[in-house]
């Protein structure tokens, strides 16, 4: 049985590695959204601010909500322009109808989805935008990592991935709230890491970070055996899914 709560808490154990090695988002993901530069927006489940910093480059006022202290401390350091708050997606520390945009970057699958969608709707003004943004591998392009390394990663990920995929599609969850039609766009980009960076990146995966320390180190040692020294340009897709508050 996958302990989702323990997996979610495990990100704080690898917050520095998360900041160094998780992929960024291309600025283009915001270009498709019906939000002007004068908007006030929030990044929910902001982590170390991977999406927050992109928002801060475009919008007039950016807030960030993150429950984990270690992740939020890094966010405060690297995105000082954002106003950070402790809190959860299901109980946002924000006023009704106070925002033009609510974002979740690589985080929506961790939320109690219907409760989170209701909270997003509560804090959005009519005409405001809900936007989910996440990175995933681009299967249409060649992955340069060795086949054995990728196969072991997939084996480790399989139980958690099954739990995520057992739920409704994101667009169906948004459709349950007071939102208009859901739109989607994708943006190919590369995530470039050397061997050390790839191994540290593995430590940030909840399905590795949540393991007991000895077991985690055994996993990393096995991954190290499967990964030669090199710089790897891993093909990624940044996805954005959005809808307008009615």
Helices and strands in order:
Elements: H1 4-9, H2 15-21, H3 28-31, E1 40-44, H4 52-58, E2 61-65, H5 69-78, E3 83-85, E4 99-105, H6 113-123, E5 124-137, H7 147-165, H8 170-175, E6 183-194, H9 195-203, H10 206-209, H11 213-225, E7 231-244
Parallel strand pairs: 1-2, 1-4, 2-3, 4-5
Antiparallel strand pairs: 5-7, 6-7
Helix pairs in contact: 2-9, 9-11
Instruction: Give average pLDDT, whole number.
Output: 95
Helix and strand composition category: alpha/beta
Number of strands: 7
Radius of gyration: 18 Å
Q: What's the name of the CATH homologous superfamily?
A: Vaccinia Virus protein VP39
Name the shape in a single word. Answer: globular
Structural account:
The chain is of the alpha/beta class and 246 residues long. It has one domain (4-142, 167-192, 235-244): Vaccinia Virus protein VP39 (Rossmann fold, 3-Layer(aba) Sandwich), CATH 3.40.50.150. The chain has helices at 4-9, 15-21, 28-31, 52-58, 69-78, 113-123, 147-165, 170-175, 195-203, 206-209, 213-225, and strands at 40-44, 61-65, 83-85, 99-105, 124-137, 183-194, 231-244. It has a seven-stranded mixed β-sheet. Helix 4 links the parallel strand 1 and strand 2 (61-65). Helix 2 crosses helix 9 and helix 9 packs antiparallel against helix 11. The N and C termini lie far apart (39 Å). The model has no long low-confidence stretch (mean pLDDT 95).
